């Protein structure tokens, strides 16, 4: 798909700003990272300054952004601006060695025990005769000193390698918080999963936390553009395409209370 749109669907300003005013808005927008800022400035350049046909603003922006290898940078930047909710990295399906530590309550204080390496005949490159076996040598990391307060004791958590994950959905924003537990605390994981079951069922669609800046600055058929450049599984959020229309996560709408049947 070419980035060109017809004149009626070409990007235009959401309000009557001059080029200097919209550039100032882009640079002071804390939601815009480096890539999103480049994309917005390129579209503003194609809309205000670049010579050419008025209906080819996106094509001009794509040429201005150039290529990275054989791929146009414009394609990846538009896909990255597609409105969506991205869960935290800790919510991924991590293996036990990479998952966050178990957050079950700690019953006993953690005591640091250094690992001791034993060197002896079993590590000798040349086999020794039975009577020539030297005494084992115990070696430990001499430069390492444990922290004065271990994070497991400070936070009161187990901290062991986790194997079980429980997702908790915020009843107002729909955002997820992962809870990880080790094999010794499976009963704790099952209890937490039962506690959040009803809350998760009543949680709303998550408020988007990524993208939506093109639609916040320019008017255009962005859903068509996003559907072309974003992954095939992308769907527009019910909160709208513009990041300006999304509820503030710090002040979200009230939680929906699930209906319950009570005996009278």
Inertia-based shape: elongated
> What is the makeup of the main sheet?
2 strands, antiparallel
Q: Segments where pLDDT lies below 50 for 5+ residues?
A: 1-8, 257-264
SSE-based structural type: alpha+beta
Number of strands: 8
SSE string, helix = H, strand = E?
A: EHHHEEHEEHEEHHEH
Helix content: 25-40%
Brief overview:
This protein is an alpha+beta fold and 264 residues long.
Topology:
Layout: E1 12-13, H1 19-28, H2 34-48, H3 57-65, E2 67-68, E3 71-72, H4 73-80, E4 117-119, E5 137-139, H5 151-155, E6 164-169, E7 176-181, H6 186-202, H7 214-217, E8 218-219, H8 222-229
Antiparallel strand pairs: 1-8, 2-3, 4-5, 6-7
Helix pairs in contact: 1-2, 2-3, 4-8
Description of the structure:
With 264 residues, the protein is an alpha+beta fold. Helix content is 29%, strand content 10%. It has helices at residues 19-28, 34-48, 57-65, 73-80, 151-155, 186-202, 214-217, 222-229, and strands at 12-13, 67-68, 71-72, 117-119, 137-139, 164-169, 176-181, 218-219. It has a two-stranded antiparallel ribbon with strand order 1-8. It has a two-stranded antiparallel sheet with strand order 2-3. The chain has a two-stranded antiparallel sheet with strand order 4-5. β6 and β7 form a beta hairpin. α1 (19-28) packs antiparallel against α2, α2 (34-48) packs across α3 (57-65) and α4 (73-80) packs across α8.
Keywords:
elongated; alpha+beta; two-stranded antiparallel sheet; 264 residues
